Amino acid sequence: MYNAFLALVISVIFAVPAHASDVAQLHLHLSSLETLQAQFEQEVRDESGNVLQLTRGELAVERPNKLRWESREPFHYQLISDGVTLWRYDADLEQLNSEPFSDELAEAPAMIIGASIEQLESQFDVRFNKQGALREFILTPKQPGMFSQMSLRFRQGKLIGMSMRDNLEQYTEVKFIKPRYNVPLADDTFIFSETNAPS
Which residues sit opposite 129 in a β-bridge? Predict the structure, then answer.
């Protein structure tokens, strides 16, 4: 099973009003992001802490709703969206599925980075914790969904960690490696092409 938890990021935040709500704090952390490009490591653990899967690959994100998530180890898999179409490609099975991008897909963990403050307020209860330079946002869906809780952790305006607990009590941690923020990305980055598909 491929975990659709990905994507995401952030940018530089210089000042946040002390009276801002928790959801407004999160929106401000995300609002100056244009693009993110990074390698990633994703670790999935069961409720006892045993490692179930370790995945490595690359990702690219561009606001709004553009995503390229490409795992290379242990499986070759792509999840790509240009904001109009969503492609899922399993290289091991040589299977491609596509579907129109929808509001429901926009609520997925991978797309939270592109959400408006109105979407965040309507979809999640957001709790903000501050410990020194560390900022943590805990998102709990208001309606049952694909995860029961997500945490986004920032330091000095940079996203340093993300985690998610799903409805089966599995815990997923994603780390970005060598992230690059607000670097221009080619338009075809977010369009599936057989010539660029993993083999």
Answer: 136
**CA gap 14, 8 in Å, rounded:** 20
Cis peptide before 74 (omega within 30 of 0): yes
Which three-class secondary structure state does DSSP give residue 30? helix
Residues 77-97 have pLDDT tens digits of 998 989 899 899 998 898 999
Q: Could you tell me the pTM of the whole model?
A: 0.75
- Domains parsed from the chain with CATH numbers: 22-183 (2.50.20.10)
What length does the chain have?
Answer: 199
Question: Which of 178, 198, 142, 182 is closest to 61 using CA atoms?
Answer: 182
Closest by CA to 150, choosing from 131, 137, 167, is: 137
Main-chain phi, psi angles of 189, to 5 degrees: -60, -30
